[in-house]
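Student: Please help interpret what follows.
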Amino acid sequence: MNTLRVKEFLVGEDGVGVVEMILIIVVLIGLVILFRDNLTKLVKNIFEKINKQSDTV
């Protein structure tokens, strides 16, 4: 009965999803680091526009 559980564990592909998620997160972090300056400028511009338009309301 224990050998059946071991075989199911070895054959199971549940760990594949975890590895895929980790790889996606690593790629996203790499992109953020690569385009950090551009993202910072973009966010600053967006918040400046929000502040300017909120003053008119």
Remarks:
- DSSP finds three helices and no strands in the chain.
- The two ends are 70 Å apart (CA to CA).
